[in-house]
Amino acid sequence: MIHSVRFKAVLDTNVVFPIVIRDLLFWLAYYELYTPKWSAHIFDEWKDVMLRKDVSVV
Predict the structure, then answer these.
(1) Phi-psi region of 18 (alpha: psi -120 to 50; beta: other; left: phi over 0)
(2) Using CA atoms, how far apart are residues 39 and 58, in angstroms rounded to an integer?
(3) Does residue 45 contact residue 53 with C-beta atoms inside 8 Å?
């Protein structure tokens, strides 16, 4: 589980859509350097962007 007691950050759509940035942020979270957070609204917005860019949403 991705969890860090010390730092939390809200990941908005504009930082999780570019694949390179998303991979880096999730890698840092995997090593528990911070805890990523997002809302259902952010997730829905991300899905809309992925569909507009013809990227598969699984």
Answers:
(1) beta
(2) 18
(3) no
